[in-house]
Every structure is written in C-alpha cells, then in structure tokens.
Amino acid sequence: GTHHALDALSQEGLSDEPVHHLDQTDAAGNNVVGRYWEAGGQAKMKKPQQRRRKKQTVTSAETDDDMNEGEDDDDVNGGGGGGGVVLGIERQREHPFIVTEPGEVARGKKNGLDYLFHLYEQCREFLVQVQTIAKDRGEKCPTKVTNQVFRYAKKSGASYINKPKMRHYVHCYALHCLDEEASNALRRAFKERGENVGSWRQACYKPLVNIACHHGWDIDAVFNAHPRLSIWYVPTKLRQLCHLERNNAVAAASALVGNGISCTGSSASGHFGV
Amino acid sequence: GTHHALDALSQEGLSDEPVHHLDQTDAAGNNVVGRYWEAGGQAKMKKPQQRRRKKQTVTSAETDDDMNEGEDDDDVNGGGGGGGVVLGIERQREHPFIVTEPGEVARGKKNGLDYLFHLYEQCREFLVQVQTIAKDRGEKCPTKVTNQVFRYAKKSGASYINKPKMRHYVHCYALHCLDEEASNALRRAFKERGENVGSWRQACYKPLVNIACHHGWDIDAVFNAHPRLSIWYVPTKLRQLCHLERNNAVAAASALVGNGISCTGSSASGHFGV
DNA sequence: AGAAGGACCAGTGGTCCGTA
DNA sequence: AGAAGGACCAGTGGTCCGTA
Asked: Where does this protein have compositionally biased stretches of type Basic residues (chains A, B) (predicted)?
C-alpha cells in the first residue's frame, strides 16, 4: 500500500497545490519534505519542527477514498512492533499565533495571521472536495464546514487543522473577508501596540457588530452573502453581541424619538465580556 | 396557573386558527372541545376519540414561553394523587391513514390524506413560530423542521405530530406540493384499486424521481425551490432512488451514444425495494 | 396483516479544561 | 501568563422495532 500523508507542516502554504498533496515521509514517519510558509514568494527553511507522534497512521490497504471506511488510526506501524522512536511520542502542537501585519512572516516558533487565514481557505477546499464526493455518490451534501470536513482534512494529512482552533478565530476571518482594509488596519495597530493574539481576537468583534448594524443586525445574512464566509457557522458570541447591540440601539431609538440610528457601535461593546 | 393545552384532536383542522390555540379541557384533562376535520366546510361531529394518557401534562407555573424551560411532562395532575381515571392510561394512537380522494372525509376510525398533508402545513406554522422567537432572541434560526420544532409542536398541544410520522410521509407531501394534479390522480387510482396506505406511499416515489430527472437529478434543488417543501429534509430513500436512476440514465446514455435522455423513469424503479 | 410512534443510536455542533 | 486542541456533552437526524 502507498504511504499515507501523515500531516503537513504548519508553515506550508501559499504555493501551488496548497492542500491535499501528500508529503514525503521518512521511515519513522517524520515529515522530511515540506513547503514552507512564505510571505514574499521566496522559500525559507523555517522550523521544520520535530514532530512526535502517539500513533502511526501509516497503514496498509489504504484506499483512495477515505470518507467512509473505519478508523485505521489505531494501527501501529506494521514494521516495528514497539520502536521507541515511534511509540509514546506525541504530535507536537502547532506554534501559537502572533499578531502580524499583512504579508509579514512570523519569526521564531510562531505562526502569523496570513497563515491563520490561509487555514480557512484550506478548509474551504476540503469542503469542496467533500461536496464533490457527496454529490457523486448521491449523498447529503454539506453546505458548511462540518465535523465531516474536519475529519476529511485530518485524513488528507492536514492534521494541523482542528475544529476548536477554526471555530475560535472564525470571526477574525470574517472581518478579513468582509472588510480587509479594516482588518489590516487592526492588525497593524495591535502589532504596533505589542498586543497578544487574544486581545487582537477580542478586538475583531466590534467592527463586525458595526457591519451587522448596517445590515439590519442580521449577522447570518452578512455571513451568507459572502461566498467564502457563508460556509462557516456564525460564532455564538458574535451572534450574542449583535443581539445586545441591536437591543441597545432599539432602546436608544425609543428614548430619543425621531433620532436616526447611527451604527457607531460605541455603547455596550464591553458589557459581554468579549 | 392556566391549564395547558394537552393536545388537539386529530380531526381538528382547516378552520380558522388551525394550530397553537388551546383546547379546553375538563377536570380530568380530557379534550372536551375540539374542532373537527371537515372537508366541505360543514362541521360534523366525528370521532371525538376517548383519549387515554400515561401522564398529565397540566402544570402550574406554566410560562407563556415554552422553548427553553425544563421538562414538566413528568408532573402528575396536582389535584388527585392517584385517580384511576387519570393514571395508568395511555394516550391513544392516532387513527391510521387510509387512501382518500382529494376532499374526501375518512370514515370510521381512520384519517384521510388531506388531513395528512394538513399536518405538514401545521408543522410549517410551528416552524415559523420557532423562527420568530429565535430571531427575537438573537439565537440560531432553524430553516428546517427540526427536533426543536417537533418539541415545540408537542408543547403547544399538537401531540398528534411526531417526527417518525412526518418523516415517513414527506415524499408524499412533496408530490402533493410539486404536482398536485399527479398526486390527486394517484390518490384516486389507488383508492379505486383498494390499495392500502403503504402501497400508495411507495407509489409516490416514482413521479418524484421523474421530476428530479427533469431538474438534472438534483432532488435537493427541487425541494429547495418550493417554498413549502424547502423546510423539509429530503428523505434518504428518495435521494437514493434519484441517484440510482441517474446512474441508470448515464449508463443508458453511454450505451446508446447520441441518444437523448428521456426522463421516462421506467428502468430501475423496483430495484431498491421502495 | 398494516400502521403509528416511543425510544434508541451514531455522529453533530459547540467549547471546556487538562495540557504544554 | 497565553494559547492549542483532545475530548467531552447535550441535543440532532434518522429510523427501528416493540406495540396496538
């Protein structure tokens, strides 16, 4: 059987065929060939992180269709029953994100925000593949990035994609899609101030609430109107913030009869613990 | 507290305010006022079926908002601790459906197909109510008849609506929506032949597969294009049948190069055990 | 036998919290 | 401390099968 792609380096990226290609692995399953995240088009050898794994996912009798078969992931490498190099070693976590400007490459053991947004594009490509397969088989066709898509991404070797991470930053990606200028400005401002990723992430909510205000507070409609964003579930907290702000706007409008509603979004942004 | 509507008679129907009104109940919780299913506009007193219940759902402290509170259904009638009339009696099942012509009232302990289709309209109204509440609260808004909608229907007193039943006949309702003439003709033919509901139900698949053929075999698109049908999930078996027929059509087309594909739907309708 | 529906089950959306 | 993600959980879609 052919060797299955275990996963791809987190630095892999913008080059041609950005997803679903199989990386070459050595006998121990280590990723020895990778495409590195590059901002300006020049490949730099950066952090080919030693990856440790709990389990080997190299299996025999691998089919070219990995949507419906059972779990092979518990198989141990057929070659060596208990090699210390293979067993008992965990897969390393992805490097944490840092706030980077558009086009900026993260230095050290970090990942930048262009890379974060690229993960969303990769998920979209995995969804398209799942949709193609589903249509071909006459099965239910997902319209969103579902558990099935995350599972497919993992089986395709993109082990660096996972649901909690993608859900965590959806609204940041939403701002990037809906108002790239505003998103870029926010990134530059927060980088300049030396803010961490968490506070940048929090700051992404407010401009989105303003956008929702300009669309009658219908954040679902805002998401659905954008082709790359419509495949993502609206995050609960963003939905709640829009609802709170709408209520504030309604209250303000009824207190000040005849006043236009402004969409300036200055009132209750901090009430919800964003 | 006000008494909660326990459920409505299955014969209740086409009159004004067809759903979500509270029926009056006597001390034992029996439905004593009902609206009866009427075909021609004249109310006939028909089968005010004695209903037996396992549990009383009459509760005190009932709110006017029954979407998120806990289950009150296990409460026993506060009045009498163990009245034999109330305890230990099951709710009677709905009368089975029989094949009726359009406009025909079912006789005896039976329900007709107009009534069946009316249940789908009621579900749509319950969905609309759930959507209104969700939007008002800024929560996720269902686009389909989900478990939440069935739960809401039950809490609103429509205990005769349940998921297995509605899912079972969805494709029959689909034919009624998409080609009422064909649906009516099928009903008349199967009634004339004295067929039971099960065989009528089976026969509803084929004309739907033909409709899908005329729309590029995209049964999801067919459902979604119809406003009353789009809120229902495409049944698995209908989806599978369309897929099989499409494959047959493709095979026939490649065997007979240059031949137009006909959508006559005569080939494999019996292969799948419909 | 034909049919209604309670109740179960595998896989979902959502995110917490033990981990590094 | 800030952050990544395995793993859990309540409620879902789907329908079987014990019931009448």
From this structure: 44-56
Which bases on strand D have an atom closer than 7 Å to a protein beta carbon?
A: 2-7, 11-16, 20
Query: Helix H segments across chain B?
Result: 113-137, 147-155, 163-168, 170-178, 180-192, 197-203, 205-213, 219-225, 236-255
| B70 Cβ under 8 Å from any chain A Cβ | no
Residue of A nearest to B240 (CA): A138
Band the pLDDT of A90: cuts 50, 70, 90: low
By CB atoms closer than 10 A (0-12, 13-18, 19+), residue B134 is middle
Q: What is the pLDDT of residues A4-43, one digit of tens each?
A: 332 333 333 322 233 333 333 332 222 322 333 433 333 3
- SS3 for B77-96 is CCCCCCCCCCCCCCCCCCCC
Mean pLDDT on A75-103: 61
- Burial grade of B18 (CB within 10 A; 0-12, 13-18, 19 or more): middle
Average pLDDT score over residue span A205-233: 98
Q: CA–C1' distance B164–D15 (Å)?
A: 7
Residue B91: its pLDDT value, please?
Answer: 63
In chain B, which among 178-207 make CB contacts under 8 A with chain A?
A: none
Q: Is A211 on the interface with B (CB under 8 A)?
A: no
What backbone phi and psi angles, to 5 degrees, belong to A9?
-65, 145
Sequence-ordered list of residues with C-beta below 8 angstroms from that of A55, at least 6 positions apart, any chain: A73, A74, A75, A76
A-B contacts (CB, under 8 Å):
22
B160: closest CA of chain A, how far (Å): 29
- What digits encode the pLDDT tens for the residues B245-255? 999 999 998 88
Provide the pLDDT for residue A228: 98
Does nucleic acid strand D have an atom less than 7 angstroms from the CB of B223? no
B167-205 pLDDT, tens digit each: 999 999 999 999 999 999 999 999 999 999 999 999 999
Q: Which nucleotide is nearest to B92 (CA to C1')?
A: D20
> DSSP code of B3?
P
Q: Looking at beta carbons, which residues of chain A come within 8 Å of B139?
A: 239
Answering whether pTM is above 0.70, one says yes
